[in-house]
Amino acid sequence: MDRFLQYAKMKFDVDWRLILMYCLVYLLWGMGMNWLGTTLEIARFTYWWQVITTYILYMVPISLLLRNRPFYEQYAYGLIAMGLLEFGGYAMRTSYAYPNNLLDQFFGGRTFALAMALFFALYFPAGNWLVGTLYKLMFNRKP
Hints:
Helix content: over 70%
Order of helices and strands: HHEHHEHHH
Strand order of the largest sheet: 1-2
Distance between the termini: 26 Å
Shape: globular
Radius of gyration: 16 Å
Structural class: mainly alpha
Strand content: under 5%
Largest sheet: 2 strands, antiparallel
Oligomer: single chain
Number of helices: 7
């Protein structure tokens, strides 16, 4: 546990502008995905503020921990993180899946949460790449 805490401390010791960029990018991404999921009647958060708790308070720290790891590690650890999040969200009814939505029709109703976890696990490598690229472009330094 001590080794993990040292690792986490090292990964969280970054420029405040990088953390701010993660928060802004993930907030916009989360709002967009919640809007898209609602518009297409796939799934949505029960409460609007869940975009903040999920995308900023949950996903940003995980992204920072996974930053600079190989794609497959980011995806694998992200899959665990998103699997727990999806399971918890639907079990506690803080996320709502529309009945007979597009994913249900395509994959079948029993695979919805798994499909969501498999998709959203890509957020970690994609988000780290996007934020890293924007940070490098804006501040001319490696994140």
